[in-house]
Amino acid sequence: MSQLTVNGIPVDVEYKKIRSMNIYVKAPDGHVKITVPLRTGSQVIEAFLFRHMDWIAAQQKKVRERYPQHTYLSGDTIFLLGAPCVLEVRETEKKRSCGMEREDNRLILTAPLNSTAEQREAILRKWQREQLHAILSGMIPEWSSKLGVLPPEWHIKRMKTKWGTCNHRAKRIWLSLALIEYPTECISYTVLHELVHLLVPNHSARFWELMTEYMPDWKKRRKRLNAVQR
Ligand SMILES: [Zn+2]
Predict the structure, then answer these.
(1) Which domain holds residue 12?
(2) How many angstroms is it from 197 CA to the middle of ligand 1?
């Protein structure tokens, strides 16, 4: 992998056994990568990138909106159940007082003196996990009984590309911590989706039939979940 800079934007260049050039704008930070056929001259690559600058800028904007670069400082915007909340950081000398609280559309994060972004993020994540856990504790048994399945073993974890997964054989589902940032109807879409997988492991016509039967507006909910805006 080598690097080029075009219009001030650093670009990773990967030479591959391919026929044409492809540009990728990657999450979460919007960095740019181009794959090019072996032995492509750097002037040819630069010209190609230059022609696609508008597209690159638009993609970077999208990615950065979707994955805001959080500082976890006062003023940062954190979504909670689809609503934007403003973070307010307070410092404390008492370790026991660290934590999070919600006051209307403000999230009060109490952190140790001179905390790092990682420390503040850890406090936020712990709180988000508790919030999501409380919601899922009600939702999973409720949907399971509607569907006529035994409530599965379930866990929350941070996932990069998915909202949930289901291990059909082990009867175990995993849900993404990021769901807490989305409206309740999106969380319940994901829960139902993974629970339906207990009955139908794939995405066959039968799977979507069941989804429609139990949640007629599932498409709308899925769209919201996959949109750039929360
Ligand atoms: Zn699925």
Answers:
(1) 2-66
(2) 7
